[in-house]
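[User] At your convenience, examine this fold.
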Amino acid sequence: MALKPPIPQFTDTRTIHISGREFFYISNLLSMFRLLIVPLLFWYIYNEQYKHAVVVGTIAIISDILDGFFARLLNQHSELGIILDPIADKFAIGAGIIAIAFRTPDIPMWALFTVIFRDVAIVLGNVYLAYRAKMITRSNWWGKCTSFSLAIALILYLIRSMDFPLPHDLELYCLYFALCFVGISFVSYTRSMFRVLKSESIQENRIQ
């Protein structure tokens, strides 16, 4: 049994209906484009073609900014976008950080596992939430800050790999800053999920 009405941070999975025209919204085309260039980003980093990787990574960041901009400007908020945008973000960040970890010892492995753990936990949490309460979480402000700050940190790691003169440990400090958002967003999503599950349990007990 699902909560009625759904709270704003969540989408009721029973009402999701994706129309064909949503695939042609500019915002969704940008998200799909970002998803499609993920293998290219991984390939360039893994093969140490860092200049190309910086270009592709920068394009991915710009597309992430623009898809939200066009969604608001053209009033193209859609259920497809709610699902597609965070998926594209997670794949791009995941591919980038894993590829960099393969090629440079500078990025702490615990940071890699922290990011992966957070994303896997959120995905599994949404699967359980969809099964139990017929809802999935929407990307919130903390989640977007996490993706953006991680993307900037990864770009700086790539620039450092090109022997570009950056301030000492700038990329590491940016990574630590991004990990603060990783922790905050994880707590934010987790608290929201538990709040929904608790409310769901209370409603079930009332009916019984």
